[in-house]
Amino acid sequence: MKNYLENTQKEGKVVLFEEELNYVRKEELSEESLVVGNTADRFSDLYMELANKETDEVVKENIEDTFLKESVQYLEKNMEFYLYVESKAFEIIGVDSMSLEVDSVFGTYEILCGLKAQKKTEKDIRAFMEEHLVGDATNYHLMFNGNDGVWDVNFSLEKINGFHKEMEIGEALKLSYLFLFALKERLAS
Question: Measuring CA to CA, which residue among 99, 40, 38 is closest to residue 68?
Fold first, then answer.
Protein backbone atom coordinates (compact mmCIF):
# COMPACT_ATOMS: atom_id res chain seq x y z
CA MET A 1 0.00 0.00 0.00
CA LYS A 2 2.82 2.36 0.90
CA ASN A 3 4.47 2.02 -2.54
CA TYR A 4 1.13 2.37 -4.31
CA LEU A 5 0.32 5.58 -2.42
CA GLU A 6 3.76 7.06 -3.03
CA ASN A 7 3.44 6.43 -6.76
CA THR A 8 -0.16 7.56 -7.19
CA GLN A 9 -0.24 10.56 -4.82
CA LYS A 10 2.16 12.29 -7.20
CA GLU A 11 -0.57 12.16 -9.86
CA GLY A 12 -3.18 13.96 -7.73
CA LYS A 13 -6.07 12.62 -5.69
CA VAL A 14 -6.13 8.93 -4.88
CA VAL A 15 -9.47 7.16 -4.66
CA LEU A 16 -9.71 4.32 -2.15
CA PHE A 17 -12.43 2.15 -0.69
CA GLU A 18 -13.37 2.88 2.93
CA GLU A 19 -11.67 -0.36 4.06
CA GLU A 20 -8.40 0.71 2.42
CA LEU A 21 -8.58 4.15 4.02
CA ASN A 22 -9.06 2.48 7.41
CA TYR A 23 -5.92 0.43 6.74
CA VAL A 24 -3.98 3.59 5.77
CA ARG A 25 -5.03 5.18 9.05
CA LYS A 26 -4.19 2.07 11.08
CA GLU A 27 -0.73 1.89 9.52
CA GLU A 28 -0.32 5.67 9.88
CA LEU A 29 0.47 6.16 6.20
CA SER A 30 0.11 9.51 4.44
CA GLU A 31 -3.53 10.49 3.92
CA GLU A 32 -2.61 13.32 1.58
CA SER A 33 -4.92 13.54 -1.44
CA LEU A 34 -6.97 10.47 -0.39
CA VAL A 35 -10.72 10.28 -1.03
CA VAL A 36 -13.26 7.48 -0.69
CA GLY A 37 -14.99 6.50 -3.92
CA ASN A 38 -17.11 3.92 -5.71
CA THR A 39 -15.87 1.03 -7.81
CA ALA A 40 -15.76 2.94 -11.11
CA ASP A 41 -13.74 5.74 -9.48
CA ARG A 42 -11.47 3.35 -7.54
CA PHE A 43 -10.71 1.33 -10.65
CA SER A 44 -10.72 4.27 -13.07
CA ASP A 45 -8.07 2.56 -15.20
CA LEU A 46 -9.93 -0.77 -15.21
CA TYR A 47 -9.42 -2.79 -18.37
CA MET A 48 -12.17 -5.32 -19.03
CA GLU A 49 -12.73 -7.92 -21.71
CA LEU A 50 -15.12 -10.81 -22.24
CA ALA A 51 -13.57 -14.02 -23.50
CA ASN A 52 -14.82 -17.45 -24.48
CA LYS A 53 -14.13 -20.03 -21.75
CA GLU A 54 -13.46 -22.84 -24.22
CA THR A 55 -11.04 -21.03 -26.52
CA ASP A 56 -9.91 -17.93 -24.54
CA GLU A 57 -10.83 -15.99 -27.69
CA VAL A 58 -11.64 -12.38 -26.83
CA VAL A 59 -15.27 -11.65 -27.67
CA LYS A 60 -15.34 -8.02 -26.54
CA GLU A 61 -12.39 -5.90 -25.41
CA ASN A 62 -11.95 -2.46 -23.86
CA ILE A 63 -15.41 -2.73 -22.35
CA GLU A 64 -16.78 0.60 -21.12
CA ASP A 65 -17.04 1.07 -17.35
CA THR A 66 -20.84 1.25 -17.73
CA PHE A 67 -20.60 -2.56 -17.83
CA LEU A 68 -19.88 -2.41 -14.09
CA LYS A 69 -23.56 -1.48 -13.61
CA GLU A 70 -24.66 -4.68 -15.39
CA SER A 71 -26.09 -7.39 -13.15
CA VAL A 72 -23.62 -10.12 -12.22
CA GLN A 73 -26.27 -12.50 -13.59
CA TYR A 74 -25.05 -11.46 -17.04
CA LEU A 75 -22.35 -14.09 -16.59
CA GLU A 76 -24.89 -16.71 -15.57
CA LYS A 77 -26.97 -15.95 -18.65
CA ASN A 78 -23.82 -16.06 -20.80
CA MET A 79 -21.96 -18.97 -19.21
CA GLU A 80 -19.74 -19.42 -22.24
CA PHE A 81 -17.92 -16.18 -21.31
CA TYR A 82 -15.69 -15.03 -18.50
CA LEU A 83 -14.87 -11.45 -17.56
CA TYR A 84 -11.17 -10.60 -17.42
CA VAL A 85 -10.20 -7.43 -15.50
CA GLU A 86 -6.98 -5.65 -14.63
CA SER A 87 -6.10 -2.41 -12.87
CA LYS A 88 -3.00 -0.77 -11.40
CA ALA A 89 -4.83 -0.87 -8.06
CA PHE A 90 -4.57 -4.67 -8.08
CA GLU A 91 -0.85 -4.38 -7.26
CA ILE A 92 -1.96 -3.64 -3.67
CA ILE A 93 -3.58 -7.08 -3.39
CA GLY A 94 -0.72 -8.83 -5.17
CA VAL A 95 -2.50 -9.79 -8.39
CA ASP A 96 -2.07 -8.58 -11.96
CA SER A 97 -5.60 -9.46 -13.02
CA MET A 98 -8.74 -11.35 -12.03
CA SER A 99 -11.32 -13.33 -13.93
CA LEU A 100 -14.96 -13.61 -12.94
CA GLU A 101 -17.06 -16.43 -14.34
CA VAL A 102 -19.91 -18.78 -13.61
CA ASP A 103 -18.75 -22.39 -13.42
CA SER A 104 -20.36 -24.33 -16.26
CA VAL A 105 -20.82 -27.49 -14.20
CA PHE A 106 -21.83 -26.22 -10.76
CA GLY A 107 -23.30 -22.84 -11.75
CA THR A 108 -21.30 -21.05 -9.04
CA TYR A 109 -19.72 -17.60 -9.37
CA GLU A 110 -15.94 -17.97 -9.29
CA ILE A 111 -12.93 -15.66 -9.07
CA LEU A 112 -9.62 -16.79 -10.56
CA CYS A 113 -6.33 -14.98 -10.10
CA GLY A 114 -2.61 -15.39 -9.60
CA LEU A 115 -1.69 -14.25 -6.09
CA LYS A 116 1.85 -13.01 -5.53
CA ALA A 117 2.85 -14.57 -2.24
CA GLN A 118 5.68 -16.79 -1.10
CA LYS A 119 5.19 -20.53 -1.17
CA LYS A 120 5.63 -20.70 2.60
CA THR A 121 2.38 -18.71 3.06
CA GLU A 122 0.23 -21.69 2.05
CA LYS A 123 -0.90 -22.48 5.59
CA ASP A 124 -1.93 -18.85 6.21
CA ILE A 125 -3.75 -18.58 2.86
CA ARG A 126 -5.67 -21.80 3.50
CA ALA A 127 -6.55 -20.72 7.04
CA PHE A 128 -7.86 -17.39 5.74
CA MET A 129 -9.95 -19.06 3.02
CA GLU A 130 -11.46 -21.56 5.44
CA GLU A 131 -12.18 -18.83 7.97
CA HIS A 132 -13.75 -16.32 5.55
CA LEU A 133 -15.54 -18.45 2.97
CA VAL A 134 -18.95 -19.59 4.22
CA GLY A 135 -19.62 -23.31 3.90
CA ASP A 136 -17.37 -26.30 3.39
CA ALA A 137 -13.64 -26.21 2.70
CA THR A 138 -14.07 -27.04 -1.00
CA ASN A 139 -15.01 -23.44 -1.82
CA TYR A 140 -11.53 -22.70 -3.11
CA HIS A 141 -8.60 -24.26 -4.97
CA LEU A 142 -5.03 -23.25 -4.34
CA MET A 143 -1.94 -24.40 -6.19
CA PHE A 144 1.55 -22.90 -6.23
CA ASN A 145 2.86 -22.19 -9.72
CA GLY A 146 6.62 -22.54 -9.40
CA ASN A 147 7.26 -21.23 -12.93
CA ASP A 148 5.61 -17.88 -12.21
CA GLY A 149 6.15 -17.83 -8.44
CA VAL A 150 2.48 -17.15 -7.73
CA TRP A 151 -0.43 -18.98 -6.19
CA ASP A 152 -3.12 -19.95 -8.69
CA VAL A 153 -6.23 -19.14 -6.67
CA ASN A 154 -9.82 -20.00 -7.48
CA PHE A 155 -12.54 -19.23 -4.95
CA SER A 156 -16.31 -19.12 -4.88
CA LEU A 157 -17.53 -15.54 -4.84
CA GLU A 158 -20.88 -16.80 -3.57
CA LYS A 159 -19.24 -17.91 -0.34
CA ILE A 160 -18.13 -14.40 0.62
CA ASN A 161 -20.47 -12.61 3.01
CA GLY A 162 -22.32 -9.89 1.13
CA PHE A 163 -22.62 -11.66 -2.22
CA HIS A 164 -26.03 -11.86 -3.85
CA LYS A 165 -27.02 -12.63 -7.42
CA GLU A 166 -28.77 -9.28 -7.87
CA MET A 167 -25.56 -7.30 -7.32
CA GLU A 168 -23.85 -5.37 -10.09
CA ILE A 169 -20.63 -6.61 -11.66
CA GLY A 170 -18.84 -3.61 -10.12
CA GLU A 171 -20.05 -4.62 -6.65
CA ALA A 172 -18.87 -8.20 -7.26
CA LEU A 173 -15.42 -6.96 -8.28
CA LYS A 174 -15.25 -4.72 -5.21
CA LEU A 175 -16.25 -7.64 -2.98
CA SER A 176 -13.55 -9.83 -4.55
CA TYR A 177 -10.94 -7.08 -4.30
CA LEU A 178 -11.69 -6.41 -0.63
CA PHE A 179 -11.59 -10.15 0.12
CA LEU A 180 -8.09 -10.34 -1.39
CA PHE A 181 -7.15 -7.08 0.34
CA ALA A 182 -8.03 -8.65 3.70
CA LEU A 183 -6.01 -11.74 2.74
CA LYS A 184 -2.93 -9.66 1.91
CA GLU A 185 -3.36 -7.72 5.14
CA ARG A 186 -3.37 -11.04 7.05
CA LEU A 187 -0.25 -12.23 5.21
CA ALA A 188 1.55 -8.96 5.98
CA SER A 189 0.92 -9.18 9.72
Answer: 40
